[in-house]
Amino acid sequence: MLLRLPEPGSFEELLRPIRIEVASLVRLSRHPATEPYWSTGVYRFDDPDPGAAAFGTCYTASTIEVAFAESVIHECGRFAGGRYEVPAPELTARSVVRFACERRKTLVLADLTGAALKALGLNNDISASADYTRSQAWARAIHDASRRWDGIRYVSRQMNKGFAYAIFERSAMRRLRAEKLKARQVDDLCDRFNVTVV
């Protein structure tokens, strides 16, 4: 059964907020100087209509491990011979990016996890489906429902014990700092996720 679409008047009062500290958000980026990167029309909770009035979305994670699974392994890994193979430059070129917002320390996100997700008449297909049509429709509907929403919290598809965040551009989130992944961090992540550097 397909996820229901967000019909106006059927979901707005059911959305449950979760406050997330901006300083807790993490992203592994190959281009830290251009962060935050605001995408449209491509990824899970992007604006489905990348026209002139489109909003941008920046994808962040709750931990470096979730960011690693969502970006490095998902985007660049290939499972072969019982292990993920990831090209060395995809690991050595990554920086851990942290964020801030002026005049506030937390963001208000629509919670699309657990009971909050089920109360909307939805299930985790919103975080796991390879078809982004309905998740993008929900992102647009949540964005337009109220300016209070700075983004969405959802379960990471690539590491289902962690959370990922789709932050809307209007949050005014900016890059606070970026530092290269340390060799020890890379080794630990590769061991944890069964990754071989090629």
Describe the structure.
The chain has one domain. Helix content is 26%, strand content 28%. It contains six helices and eleven strands. The strands form three sheets. A five-stranded mixed beta sheet has the order 1-7-8-9-3. It has a three-stranded antiparallel beta sheet with strand order 2-6-10. It has helices at residues 64-76, 88-92, 114-119, 125-128, 133-145, 183-193; strands spanning 17-21, 26-29, 57-61, 78-80, 83-86, 95-100, 106-112, 151-155, 163-168, 174-180, 195-197. The protein has 198 residues and is α+β, with helices and mostly antiparallel strands. The mean pLDDT is 96.
Which characteristics define this entry?
198 residues; alpha+beta; five-stranded mixed sheet; three-stranded antiparallel sheet; 6 helices; 11 strands; globular
